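Re: export button greyed out
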Amino acid sequence: MKDIVVQIENLSKSYRLGAIGTGTFYGDVKRWWAKRLGQPDPYAKVGVMDHQNRSGETIWALRNIDLSIRRGEVMGIIGRNGAGKSTLLKILSKVTAPTTGNVKIKGHIASLLEVGTGFHPELTGRENIYLNGAIMGMRRSEVSRKFDEIVSFSEVEKFIDTPVKRYSSGMYVRLAFAVAAHLEPDILVVDEVLAVGDISFQKKCLGKMSDISKEGRTVLYVSHQMATILSLTQSCILMQQGQIVKMGDTSEVVSEYMNGVSEKKGYFGKRDLSSYPRSRNLPRNIDFVEIRLEDDAGDTKGVFVEKENIKVVVKMLVRKPSRYFSIGMDVSTFEGVRVFSIIKPKVEVELREGVYEVSAQFAPSYLRPGKYSINISVQSSILQDEVNDAVVFEVKHAAESVDDQFWMSDNRGVTRFDYEWNELRLSDQ
Amino acid sequence: METEVTNQENWTLVIRPQRAWWDLRLGELWRYRDLVWLFVWRDFVAYYKQTILGPLWYLIQPILTTLVFTVIFGNIAKLSTDGLPPFLFYLAGNTVWTYFSTCLTSTSNTFVSNSSMFGKVYFPRLSVPISIVISNIISFGIRFGLFILFLTYFIAQGSEVRPNAWAFLLPVLLLIMAGIGLGLGIIISSLTTKYRDLQQLVGFGVQLLMYGAPVIYPLSSVESKWRWIFLANPMTPVIELFRYGFMGVSSLSPMYIFYSIAWMFVVLLIGVLVFNHVESTFMDTV
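Workaround output, generated via the alternate export path:
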C-alpha cells in the first residue's frame, strides 16, 4: 500500500454573509449609524431579500472534509458550481486559510488554478517563462535547466523573444501550461485550466498530466468535463454543498453525479433560479428568476420525444434599466460536450425595471437520446448573469423509430440528423 | 489503516486555520529570493519598454519640480535655504523625498493591486513590496546622478558647498527610507483589504508628511514652537543628514539618525506582523 501524501482532517471553511463590510470605512460607519437609528441598511441590495435576512449568518463553503490521497493517485473532484471544489483547491494551494481543521502534506505541492498567473504582456516569452516559473516556486537555475524543454513543449520557439502581448491566445496558453507542466512537484493540484487552447494542445496537456501521474506524482484534478475526468482519473470524489457525498472509483462516482444532476435535484423541466448558485460574481442587474421547458401544448415537462418541439422559457428580473439586451444558451450533454448554442444577438431596446420573459424553440430530433443540460447567459452592454446547468431535460425517441437501438449506443457521436440512403445497386464497374 | 496514518508524522507542510502572529516564515521568503529579483527586473524592463523617453522621465520630473520649488519658495516666498544655492537645496530635498514617498505609496496597495495574482497562486506575499522598494532604488540612482551632476557644477562655479565624509552614510539613509516606507506601506496595504478609502488618505498623508519634513525649507528656519513636529518626523534626520553630507550645512546633530533607525525597526516589525496576519485570509475580504 502506498503511503498517504495528502491528509485532510476535518477541514471547514466559512464565509460570513453580510459581515464582509461595505469596502470603505465611510460605508461601514454609515451602516453602523443606520443600524443604531433602526433604519434599513443603506447598502442592502434592492431585491436581494434573502441576502438581507441572512446577514451575519455563516455560509459553510466546506464542511468537515476528511480525505486522504495516496502517492501516485490521480483523483478527480466533481460537483456542481458552489459545491466547494474551488474553495478546497484554494486551501490546498495556500491562497486562503481554512476556518477549522488542517491539511498535512508530504512533498512539494504546486497548484495550477489558472495558467499564466503573473504573465506580463510587455515581457517576451523567454522573460515570462522565468517570471512565471519563479512565481510558482521554481529557482532560476531550475528554470534555466528546463528552459529548452519548456519552449519545445509550448511550440512557440519562433516567437520566444516576442512580447507575449503579441501572442495569439492559443500561444499564450500553450506557453503558460508548458511552464506549469515542468514544475515537477510531488503533488499537482489542477483546476479546470485545460478548457482553453485547441483540441490538439488539450490532448497534449492531458497526455502530460497522465505522464506526471505515471512518474508516481499525485494529481488532484477538478473538472466539469466528465469525459476528461473519466479518461484521466482512477478515483474521484463528488462534492455537494461543501461536503464529500461520494468517494471511490471514478466511473461509479461520475454516474452517481450524472444521475444526481437530474432526478435527485428534481429540476427536470423547471427551475427557480433566483437563489441558485452562480459560478462567479456577476452584476445581475438583469437577473434570471426561472427557467422552464414547455412542449407544443404549453405543458411544463422535462422529457421530450423526437417529434415534439422544446420551448425554453426564461424569466428574468430587470433591476436597472438597460439599453442593450442579448441572451444566449447552449445545450450540453451530461459528459460536458457542448452540442449547440443559440443566441439572440444584441439589440438596442428600452428595458425598464420589471419581470420579463423570453423564449426560444428548437426541435430535439437532432439530439441523440439522452440527458442534456442548458446553460444560459444574458448581457446588457456587459455580461449580467449566467447560470450553468440551469435546467435539465431528457430526449427519448419515438418507439417506432427504426434506428433507435443504433442511437442508444454511447459512441454514435453527439448529434443525430435526418438522412436518407440511396438504393443499394450494383455498380457498373 | 490507523497504524499507517500514525507511521507518517514527517509532513513537509501542515496547513492550519491561523498562523501564529510571530510565525513570519522569513526562511520561505529567502527561498523565494529569485522571485524578488525577477519582480525587480520585471518592473524595470516593463517600464522602459512602455515609454519612449525611458529613463529621461526620471530626469524631467525632478528638474521641473525643483524649478517650480525654486521659483515659488525661493524667489517668490523667499524662504531660507541655509545659505545654499536654492536650486541645489530643493533638488537634494526632492531627490531624497521622492524615494521615500514612492516606496510608501507603491507598497501601500500591494494586496489590492495584486489580488488577481494572489488569488491564484501562493508565494510569500512580502516578496512583492520588497521588490518594489528595491526597484525604486534604480530610479533613485538616476535622480541621484542628476543631483551629483548639479552639485559638481555648483562647486565648479565656486558655490559655498562642502561635501564631507558623512556623505558615505547614503546607503544607511536609503535603508532607513526603504524600511520606513515599506513598513508604513504594508501596514496601510493590510488595512486597505478591508477599507479601500484609506488609499485616498495615502496620497494626502504623504503630502502632509512632506510639509512636516524639511524638504522645502531647512530645519533652522522653523520656529522653535513648531520644531517638535519636525523632530518627531523620522524623515527629518534623514533629509538633514543627506544635505549635511553632500553640502555641509545642517542645524541638526547627525546623532538624530538613531531616532530614525529606531522608527524603522518598530515600523518594520509592526508592518511585517500585520501583513503576515492579513495575508492568510485577505482573499476572502478583498
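The two ends of chain B are 41 Å apart (CA to CA). The button fix ships in the next patch.
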